[in-house]
Every structure is written in structure tokens, then in C-alpha cells.
Amino acid sequence: MQTDPTPSPANELATTGAPAQSNGPRQGGPRRADASFMLSHPFHIISLGFGAGLSRLAPGTAGTLFAWAAFEVLNRYITVTDWGLLIIVGFFAGIGITGFTAKKMGVSDPSAIVWDEIVAFWLVLLMITPVGIEGRLWAFIVFRFFDMVKPPPIRYFDRRFKSGLGIMLDDMVAAFFTLLVIALWRMSV
Length: 189
Prior knowledge:
The protein is mainly α and 189 residues long. The chain is built from nine helices and no strands.
């Protein structure tokens, strides 16, 4: 007795001329982040920084600017303790949230995922407050430098850890080095 072969994407394409529908990882390459992808799941909205990560030009910088703006607004209403809790929960929840979005996009650390920049820059801003606009601008520049260039040991964390942990961890290390540079600069003046 002969049975029909189990449908596979290749068999489906050969028999119907159309690719098979799949609920698994994306076939045929990475998924591009766009508004419809972002709105398809609440985790994508968070991972993509409420739309900041959709920027075609420097999404990490757009995410960091979003973090700065959100900090300025929220800082009027929440306490230092609340910020600490938000950053801790944002980091640990971000591991799962960003990992989920990265898997759906088919890329280990897509540039459109900016939740890592948001949480890390909130930490920087919280630790340097109170400073004026000039101090915050310098913190922004130093953080973006470490996040973009990824000098050692940041590069080590970026390459060693994958999925959501890797996405979140390298930006926290960049935040640490930003705070170290700011502390050393303050000690020298």
C-alpha cells in the first residue's frame, strides 16, 4: 500500500507552485521589521521600542533617544526605587521578550530591537541624575560610542552570549563602561 509523502516546503512548492505555510522559524531568510510586524505581537512592540527601532537610519540611536525622552517624562512621576525596579524587571523580562522577537525575525540580534538600548540608557540616566542637559548629552554620546563600537570586553559579551541574554547583556556592559567613564571624568575635575 502506497501512502502520500508527508508535505514539506519543497514538496508543497513542487506540487502547488506555492510555498507551504509554516508556524515555525521563518523560511527563506530574515524577516524585516516594519509596522505590521511590530503590531503583530505585544512583545514586538516592546522589543522594537514602541516604533523607535523601525527607524531606517540608526535604529539604536533612535531607541536611545526614545529612552532619553521617556526618562524625562517618567522621571517626574516615579521615584528612584521605581526606576530601579523598572530597570531590573525591564532587563530580565527583556531577555525573553527580545529573544522571542529575534527568533521571529530570524536574526540573532536584529538592529531593530532597541529595548536593550532603552533599559541600559535608563540605567545611565538614573545613575548620573541630577545633571544638566550638557551632562546628559555627553552620557548619550559616550553610551552610543560604546554601543556602536563595542570595544573589548563589550565585544566579548556580544559574541559569547546569544538570543535574548546576549541582546540585553552587551548594552548593560556598555552602560557600565559609560558610567565608568563619567565617574573617572568627574574624579579628574
